Amino acid sequence: MLVRQMLRDRVPELYHVGHGHVVDASWHCSRQFDLILADHLGAAALFRAQNTTSYYPFEAVYAVGEVKSAYYSSKRYIECFSDSLRVLRTSLQRDETPANYLGGGLTLGTGLSVPIGEWRYRNPRFSFMLFATANDFSLSQVDELFKTRPVTELPSLVVFLDRGVLMNARIADAATPDEPPCFVFMNLVPQFSSPGNGEHDSWVFAQVGPNEKREASALAFLVMKLVNHLQDCLLMPPKLSQYFSTMLTLAHAEEPI
After folding, report:
1. Can you state the angle between helices 77-91 and 139-148, rounded to 10 degrees?
2. What is the pTM for the complete model shown?
3. Which among 174, 193, 192 is positioned nearest to 183, based on CA atoms?
4. How far apart are CA 10 and CA 3, in angstroms?
5. Could you report the per-residue pLDDT of 124-172, keeping only the tens digit for each?
């Protein structure tokens, strides 16, 4: 897939770009994802099937994504992706990286921590969707979905190369009824957001860049936000012995009598 190769060319070699399934130490398995960004050094993939589909330990996953050539309202693409994120959130388990974790197995002492802003733990998952063309997309089609689903089951960012981006943003309330609300910044991890007085969070649709460079600008916006997340997120290494022990147990249990 061209998008996977594009991302491989633009993110540091510390990060692996692939596709397939996410599994946890109990071998609960996610649905298949078009794009998975994982820790290249820790454990990029547990194994790869003959059709090149890979299986990634949950602890090593930074982000998951879905790519479509065009949006069709009848296909319910965003709702289906949201369902996949729900499975990932509710069926798979991984420990949260605490604020006192430094990486490489090193942890600060009790009562000490690294400043992480609004984040409550250091390894939130990023998710995104990319559509080459918006086709018949309209905000009214997804309004109910984005109002009723938990933010942890919604894509962090939806990009339409020919039209713009759908994202969760911090909005400053208007000072007077005649003034429009003011965009402050995108919430990379909406579940951690804590708006202050005079602010609120909202899903917004925005164009990025000039019209003649809209596609390039939208793609650059996605890469920038993805890289921001990769740099801010800190994963703990998977306990691979648990994964392979569970795998062997399952394989033995499935042997014919």
Report:
1. 20
2. 0.91
3. 174
4. 11
5. 999 999 999 999 999 999 999 999 999 999 999 999 999 999 999 999 9
What contacts 204, CB < 8 A, 6 or more positions away?
Answer: 166, 167, 168, 169, 171, 183
Query: What is the C-alpha radius of gyration for the chain, rounded to an integer number of angstroms?
Result: 20
- Please give the Cα distance from 111 to 119 (Å, whole number): 17
Q: Which is nearest to 4 in space by CA: 16, 13, 17?
A: 17
Residue 235: pLDDT above 60? yes
29 has which bridge partners?
23
Residues 191/156, Cβ–Cβ less than 8 Å: no
Beta-carbon neighbour count of residue 143 at 10 Å?
11
Whole-number pLDDT of residue 245: 87
Chain center to CA of 257: 43
pLDDT computed for residue 29 by the predictor: 95
Domain boundaries, the chain: 2-253
Which residues does 213 contact at the CB level (< 8 Å), separation at least 6?
none
